[in-house]
UniProtKB/TrEMBL annotation:
Species name: Methylomonas rosea
InterPro entries: G3P_acylTferase_PlsY (IPR003811)
Topological relation to the membrane, as annotated: Multi-pass membrane protein
Origin superkingdom: Bacteria
Quaternary organization: Probably interacts with PlsX.
Keywords: Acyltransferase, Cell membrane, Lipid biosynthesis, Lipid metabolism, Membrane, Phospholipid biosynthesis, Phospholipid metabolism, Transferase, Transmembrane, Transmembrane helix
E.C. no: 2.3.1.275
Enzyme class: transferase
Record's protein name: Glycerol-3-phosphate acyltransferase
UniProt-annotated location(s): Cell membrane
Length: 190
């Protein structure tokens, strides 16, 4: 029964907005009210540069990684682990501490993949990197990596529950990037 408490813990951890905290600590503008209005690493880079974005990226990845590592250390079953993965991700998208207005979830989804299996996280990150090097567009790289993640989960981890939850996460990532997709299709994405 204690295992199930990890699910709300993961949501609360995911709800901590690295972008807002980093911007506040570095004396930068609120990312929800500047740039794209998205509290994520890409918008923080627009507002405050590479250092602020890197700190935000690491913070967002850690809030996905840590609850998953804790769940694995406690030996939870695949269903609970899948729910912990999803809860951390959803916490980032809809943070209780910040009026349920969060980021798009790319860095947090990377964190949960790293928590599930280091190789999985590495393959997802490498996919993003290769797609970025080819296309030079961060959102396109994120979409490519998100689309392939469920396949990677199945091939590397081989767990039905985790594959299903990462399929849902990938669909949400695609949905959260719908404006980016429209700009990509129109040839207007920067």
């Amino acid at each position: 029964m204690m295992d199930w408490l990890l699910v709300p813990f993961a949501y609360l951890t995911g709800s901590v907005s690295s972008a807002i905290i980093v911007c506040k600590m570095m004396g930068l503008a609120d990312p929800r009210e500047n740039g794209s209005g998205n509290p994520g690493a890409t918008n923080v880079m627009r507002i405050g540069g590479k250092k602020a974005a890197a700190i935000t990226l690491v913070g967002d990845a850690l809030k996905g990684l840590l609850p998953v590592l804790l769940a694995k250390a406690l030996g939870v079953d695949s269903v609970v682990l899948s729910l912990v993965v999803f809860a951390a991700f959803v916490g980032h998208l809809y943070p209780i501490f910040f009026e349920f207005k969060g980021g798009k979830g790319v860095a947090t989804s990377l964190g949960v993949t790293l928590g599930v299996a280091w190789l999985l996280g590495f393959v997802v990150a490498a996919t993003w990197f290769v797609a970025y090097k080819i296309g030079k567009i961060s959102s396109l790289a994120a979409l490519v990596a998100a689309t392939l993640t469920p396949l990677y989960v199945w091939l590397i981890v081989g767990d039905v529950n985790l594959t299903a939850i990462f399929t849902v996460i990938s669909l949400i990532l695609l949905w959260r990037h719908k404006s980016n997709i429209q700009r990509l299709l129109a040839g207007q994405e920067s």
